[in-house]
Amino acid sequence: MDKNTSKAKNMMGIKEATLSEVEYTFSQDTDSCQSEDIGQTIKIFTADGGGGAYIVFSTPRWAIDADDIDQFAACLKKIVKIPEE
User: Fold this and answer.
1) What would the mean pLDDT of 9-35 be, rounded to a whole number?
2) Mind giving me the DSSP string for 24-60?
3) Is 77 part of any domain?
4) What pTM does this model have?
């Protein structure tokens, strides 16, 4: 098995299929400190160099309220576990 693929032997009911990457793109409205009204996007994906999946972020700008940090972190923990399930 490639070091960048899931350790699962049965992915989504398909025998011997492996999941090598999970990617999500989220979008939200412009925040109040942003000079242009272009909205915000963040791409969150997993990568694995052989030691287990980790999260990678790609975004020009993504703002969240301090009250939402724990919920955002919980979401990231779920995403990073998907390829290993």
Assistant:
1) 80
2) EEEEEPPPTT-SS---EEEEEEEEESSS-EEEEEEEE
3) yes
4) 0.69
